[in-house]
## 1
Amino acid sequence: MEQGYSDKAYRWNRENYSSKRRFVDIWSFVLTLMFKIWRYNKSWSYPGGVTEAKQTARRKAQAIWIRNTLLDLGPTFIKVGQLFSTRADIFPGEYVEELAKLQDKVPAFSYEQVETIIEQELGKKIPELFQNFEPIPLAAASLGQVHKAVLHTGEAVVAKVQRPGLKKLFEIDLQILKGIARYFQNHPKWGRGRDWIGIYEECCRILWEEIDYLNEGRNADTFRRNFRGYDWVKVPRVYWRYTSPRVLTLEYLPGIKISQYEALEAAGIDRKVIARQGAQAYLMQLLNNGFFHADPHPGNIAVNPDGALIFYDFGMMGRIKSNIREGLMETLFGIAQKDGDRVVQSLIDLGAIAPVSDMGPVRRSVQYMLDNFMDKPFENQSVATISDDLYEIAYNQPFRFPATFTFVMRAFSTLEGVGKGLDPEFNFMEVAQPYAMQLMTNMNGSDSNSFLNELSRQAVQVSTTAFGLPRRLEDTLEKLERGDMRVRVRSIETERLLRRQSNIQLGMSYAVIISGFTLSATLLLVNHYVWLALLASLIAAVVSAILIRLLLRLDRYDRMY
């Protein structure tokens, strides 16, 4: 980190907050960011002239400033920044890269506050609930901190205690963020093609779910049940008697972080096996269970002495629709045939692309990817490269990827990075290949059966389309009659002529203004009103410059067309 936590950053670690102060702090950040973005495109703001290297350096500096400011603003903005680090389809790459570095390790709150919260939530004092409770936390994060403890029954546990006043802070911050989202939604430039209100609501849902420890406990139980038949995956057990919305008590399962490669080797654990098991565990979550860990960074995965994976932190989870198998098979068939329309429709059905009124740019982008990036064998592809290419195409396009899709892509990229750290020869796509082949053969049948199923599916689709066509035509005609549908016809040549005529009329107005002020300046000078004559001359000169610029623009348009 370029800076530590200042006294200003520590202001939010309290139970009572000033909504006015938060309003000033948050809007100051937003307005400063808007000014920096506006200045970025101004060539005069670059000493010695604008260059690509200078613009890159400025984007990097802005990204670092954003990350550090979000840390200063506290838990709400740390979490929002972490969520935005998945949205490479909306934000520039430098911003996403820096936001991905956001760590929510912050100063711990006092043991006295821990005692108060546990007594309020569980109705008993710490000595009545625990045989031993360590006052110094194992870790402190933006939403809470974790203490090691021992129950009276002798079981080692960890108690996760939420920060004091966090709910009130969220309510204040999210109300302010709602106003900011509305502002951006109505902005003539930044609101075009972006559903900022939808992104805000998505962030709200995820944040409220993450601070509800009962919800996290249910997620942990579900995740544990899904892997109960696999001894190489361990999930902490929830102690519900000692759990509430702000206190979560879990089984103590210590392990070596999956990113501590030397420690794993020293413990005699095969790093290659761990790399493959990490990828397999995630593919099973997606394809077998439809319930997956949405934040599998190295801090949330560890390895026990027996070489089993341990998963932590179940506040942020994702769910896949029940028809994921059929949808994925449809996508894979479309990719195999390089059929952009089919891929786009299957991604819409899967919820991987949010449909907009004009899907033309989406189809062209997908077809471009199919034609240019899908020539290499499946097992030689890289998740990070595919996602980077996808986000590069998606950035500044009039469509966006929903949270589920971006969480999956970020998780794949993270696991691929960790896997390569564990084993330099690791390839995530190679591990995923058997799952893809299983989907392509539709799980139960042979290749020939899949081919027949595909033919029958296409026959049904054609017949359904044919029978539904009259109804769709009738609906379209009814909408036209009611005025619910408008047809726009655009003539570039007519627009050019109208623009030229408008500019000529504007030029004539400028000429009249120049003539008037020049005549006024002459009369004033003759009558010895020198300063007033100079002022009139200055106005005439400024308007003349504007007129010359307009004439040059007209000349440029004529050469272009």
## 2
Amino acid sequence: MTTKPIKWTYLKYLFWFGPILTIMGITAQEVAGEWSAVSLALLIAGLVIIGLWVLLLDQLAPGFWRRRSTQVGTNAVIATLAMFVIIGLINFLGVRYGVQIDLTENQLFTLSPQSQQVVRNLDQAVKVWIFESPANPADQELLENYRRYGSNLEFEFVDPQLQPELAQKFNVNYIGEVYLEYGNQRELVQTINQGERLSEINLTNAIERITRNRAELDKVYFLQGHGERPLDTSEEGGLSQAVSALQTKNFTVEPLNLAEQPAVPDDASLIVIAGPKRALFEPEVQALEAYLADGGSLLVMIDPDTNPGLESLLSDWGVMLTNQIVIDASGQGRLVGLGPATPLVTQYGDHPITQDFGSGFSIYPLAQPVDTQPVEGIKQTPLVLTNPESWAENTPEQQPLEFNEQEGDRPGPLVLGVALSRQAESSTPSPKSEPEATETPEASPDTDEPEVTETPEASPTPSPEESPEASPSPIQTDKSQVEQDKAESRLIVYGNSNFATDSWFDQQLNPDVFVNSVSWLSKRDEQALSISPKEPEDRRINLTPVQSGMLGWLAVLIVPAFGFLTAGALWWLRR
């Protein structure tokens, strides 16, 4: 009978001093908050003992490394260490290069494309001050989302009671006020509380408003005097919700009566003609034509069975309205309570207005198709298209509604809205004002940008203060770019105005169709035209007392009884 060497019998227990001293040293450092001589000595002593034990292990226990148990244990230790290393690397990469995936139905935790673009375009720091303590997790997460898209956005939560001088600096009146600071400008965004948290819509619009000085370019005039849709809720079919949405997007809305003044105001960003019931006077049409020729923008929404007297203006752009009624025979509308004369649209054109709509829904009650024919120098893009199972009904008074090509009905898909643009007729300088312009190439009719030449006076809209020999300064370059944008005439025609009224405006994508159309017409091309930030869907299930009672019996009695019966039957068959 052989016995183990005495030195191994006792010396093997010295190994445990290594881990014990190492743990003692680390614990002493955590308690003290810093490395001291004692904690360092304990840690070093423990590591030295562990190292000596590993080096002398083969002498203390001959054949230890060749044992199968040692190999299995070593593999387990290496695998465990490798797992910790891999998990540590994954967490390091996750913190350093974080990626979030929003799995909610309406992308509730993802900023809208417009918010992302606004933050990316910040050229200097914008700070959000939230005078509330403690910080609300939902508000903090929203602000972190903003900061992921731009490092120039900063935020700070402040307790106004602990920092009264800062609260006095912002003139804080209530706990929960949110302010923006941009250079020496400060603006109140909103006041938050337990029932109303920080809103992405309010914050994005406030950032855009404080960083952009476009008030003089953002005035929208609604034509009045011909039975157009009212701008308030005084009458049925008003546009009060549409007006509020435009004001939220930093537009100024005013009525316009061209019978009282001879021309469109100079500060107009665009003119909206919403559902006129009577024809415009000829001087009014001429004023609109002159406004468009000078680089203006016009949004026309005309319902069937009306004659606004705009045939000459629209035909000049290649647009024709047939006064037919669009019938949707696909049956999609019936699933949500819509009739066949209310098309439910899911197809959109390739345009900045509709680029983020995907296959979302928009609704156009009693709409007429918008036909176009090619016109040289005019770019035409369909915006809203019906499905192939729709048709344009020529005799809607005949019931039942059936497609009859012999009576003039036309099969779908049909265009309900079209966007058009062309170079403004007044964008080319006259020889009287610019003698050198005869030797300078003009802008191409198919593009918004003039051809590049070596002479600075080749710009189609030179500033009167510039000398021909002077090179343009940065300020003059920015001014020239604005003039180039204004030199493009833009027109949008919808064969329907009901979709923008108070009864239908908040349905699905209807507000986005209207607001994005206005934004594009106002030459806000550098900003993201996108779907508004979405609200959470109400997914509550309302049960009657009978239904709730049935669910209770199912959970308490029926399902358990079925399980017991099944188990008993299996036992009986196998006994």
## 3
Amino acid sequence: MPTPPPPPPGKQKKKSGWFRKLLIWGFALALLGAIFLGVAVAVTAKSIPSYEELKRSQSGQTILVRARDGSELFNMGPSYGKWVSMRSIPKVMPAAMTSVEDRRFYSHFGIDPLGLMRAVYVSITSGKSMRATSTITQQLARNLFLNNSRTMTRKLNEAVWAMAMETKFSKDQILELYLNKVYFGGGAYGIDAASRKFFGHAAEEITLPEAAIIAGLVKAPSHYSPTADAKAAVDRAKVVLQTMVENEAISASEAGALDLAAIKFAPEGGKNSVRYFTDWALPQLDILVPENTDPIEVWTTLDPAMQDAATKSIVANVPGGAQGALVSMDRDGAILAMVGGTDYVTSNYNRATLAVRQPGSAFKLFVYLAALEAGYKPDDAVVDEPVTIDGWTPRNSGGTFAGKIDVRTAFAYSKNTVAAQLGNEVGFGAIAGVARRFGITTPVNTMPSMVLGSSEVRVIDMTRAFATVSAKGVPIDPYGISKVVTTDGRTIYQRAAPTAQPIVPQYVIAGITDLLQSAVSVGTGHAAQIGRPVAGKTGTTTSNKDGWFLGFSSGITTGVWMGRDDAKPVAGLQGGTAPARAFAQFMKFAVAKRPVEKFDTELKLPAWQLEPDDEQILAAPSDYSFVDEQGNLIEPQENQRPRPGDEPGRPEDAGLPPRAANDDFLNEATGKEGVRVRRGDQPPPGN
């Protein structure tokens, strides 16, 4: 084949010219970029605090949690151990850390170009996104000065800060800062805090397998933490050891001689029943206090001695295989004790505040409150007999019927048929409304069976309802934090005293307290007696799946629930057995130092509930209003026929005393045209 002719000399010159220009411009841009980068690094280096200032700085907010008596419950948030210098750190620790996090730490200048190029190559050949290539210096810069966003701007800033740190500090200083400040999970910052938390000793005593575990935590502290998953921590440590062998930090024989399974982890501190309470209370800080990063002290309402007594009462009385929960609150709603289960370490699920279970007959509190509001009194007669409502036929425990009894007896012995009749009479919607007013936050159905507690509720809500009765009808708002102060003594939150008004009349509270006291003294809750006045109610669901007792004495209200998490029946579990006994055991301790308080059960009925001949009718008809059977106001002109002497403005009537009502007025007042209500009195509730 003939050889192609060479390109014209002009074309060759053009190509070489463009190539030369490209090199020149490339070099110029690179030089300009290097100058810009150098200036940026120099300026940044000047803004970096001194080494001693960085040693004293802390990341994150420390929260000291105190009990109501001021005693320390525990610290949460960042935990900082003592500062450990490089000469005191066992050499296996930095060797493990640099092997797994930054094997060219001692040779790069803050960023690792070789590592970056390798990451780009792997990304291109594998088709996967580029993995993180941050050096130890970059990680430290990010932790100290930047955030964890994944933007390109943050990565560029991170590189500049890392190079600036390399110009200001030695490699050993950077590694010392890193080992003392990096987060290792479980709230532990720095190797001393991590060593004490996970192994129970100071950082100076760290062994090779422990160093491998600690170094392995940095990648994902929450996932590899020994307190979260010991097996995952050990498996990750094996990877660290293998990397150390590859980097010749240790020999293969040294790694092979280790038995990671034999490592003993320190027992988890602070994992007791107090954590059920703090898990519920502390998240409320986000609402109660303004955003700040200062160390704070949180003063809670928890009584440590009562908390211990509550835990013991649940553990001692809960049936085998079942769980238990308890909430106890003071007369103002302050939580004194909270138990969410038999063992926090085994299960941190808080059954006192999160679980929803059927309350059984404990729900009759709302049925009888509605009945008392509608005009029933504890001594009124009711009939315990078979009843069917909308195809539903309730039965009593034991299957017997007592016939004609009074309301007090029906409540004390938890007669289901009577509760069903009362619910049907006052209205199931009215009962649901009462439950809402008294603090039930879960959905309440209005089917007839709701009177026996078919709607699911929370222990804390039911306890709140009984506490509202104890507080004479003033609605109770449970709370666990009384104040929050900074470490320099500045108060940033103080709970204000509530100013709520009673949500039911006092005669209703007196009546329901009478019923609740009878349930304990002679009824199903007799096991809850503690040698002083107690008012309360038992609750048991079908097949003994749930057992409840809720009650109050001397200003303390306590609710107890027992049952299985899978809602399977528990043999012999009724509200009047194990729950009532746990209540009594706890309350004997809780009220021991409080004065005995007698309950006010005297009924002081409003005028509209008195019989016509119990009230002297001496006022003129114009002093009265009239309501129909539904409680709706009837205008006076529709009910009052003018009579001689009633016309306004008659001079002959001026100054005369009001005349007694005549027969027509009595007829109107006692039922023919409406029900008489004295002005200023409460009208009767609707049916």
